[in-house]
Predict the structure.
Amino acid sequence: MYYSDFTPYCYIEWRADRNILNIGWLEAPHPFPTKKASEELLDALFEKCLTTVNPTLGWHQCQFCDVRGLKFPDTVRQSP
């Protein structure tokens, strides 16, 4: 599933809100810029991950990671 960054959220149409933007909905065939993230950016992204917006049930396996044999986490934790 791919949505360009900063496009209006539309995954669940009846929950769409013009004030919610897509960020990080990446998919392997679509190109996207990469670079090493600063600690400040990672901290800010983690803080945003603590607030859910239109949560859904289920999992989507990452196309960029080798997660075979691993179980998906059911919580998000910040490492010390």
Notes: The chain has one domain: 1-80.
